[in-house]
Amino acid sequence: MDERELLELLKTDPERGLDAAIRAYGALVLAAARTALAGVGNGADAEECAADAFAGFFRNLASFDPSKGTVKAYLCSAARNRAADLRRQRRREKGNVSLDGGFDTAGGASPEAEAERAETRRELIGAIDSLSEPDREIVVRRYYLGEPTKSVAKRLGLSAAAVDTRAHRALKKLKALLTDRRSL
After folding, report:
1. What's 98's DSSP letter?
2. What CATH architecture applies to the domain 3-94?
3. Of the candidates 97, 104, 79, which has an alpha carbon nearest to the alpha carbon of residue 146?
4. Exposed site from 56, 106, 171, 172, fewest CB < 10 Å?
């Protein structure tokens, strides 16, 4: 079933259309939520984000504009946005974010663990600083400030897809930089 047929089914028989959308995109939307929640949420959280994405799409079906994107892209974006909201909520619950991007968790950790975290934080900040613009700003805005892709795209004059692509490539570059630094 293609997008046009799916949208038509959603209009003529909403329940069957929603079932078809879940069958077609459910695994992908769940994977998008899991990826966005990596290190913060669990499987139930990812399932909730995916379910919220489908429910939101269904509620706002009348305002969905296929000329602005596909159903698949909308659902994945909605799941990632819901996951980002949940990630921010969990960060607030865990502790206050400090200026250097780490968490201020009063007490609890040993001095050695705190020193290791501080060193890791310094390495990460150094690696981010080595990125070129706009990649540096994209990483800071998306992953430190939790700014949505659309907002970053608008601010930088890029498309949302370009921001997502650049963010993905920048994260791969950061991983390689940090791996190289640690192997020295």
Report:
1. P
2. Orthogonal Bundle (1.10)
3. 97
4. 106
The pTM assigned to this predicted structure is 0.50
CATH 1.10.10.10, domain 96-183, yes or no? yes
Q: Which two tokens stand for residue 94?
A: 């865990």
User: Where along the chain do its domains lie?
Assistant: 3-94, 96-183
Structural tokens at position 156: 């930088």
The answer to whether residues 153 and 159 touch, using CB atoms and an 8 Å cutoff, is yes
Structure tokens at 115: 């020193």
Region 116-128 average pLDDT: 81
Single-letter residue type at 38? A
User: Which residue from 75, 70, 61 is spatially nearest to 33, judged by alpha carbons?
Assistant: 75
- The beta strands (E) that lie in the chain are given as 96-97, 103-104
Average pLDDT value for residue range 125-154 = 86
* pLDDT of res. 102: 43
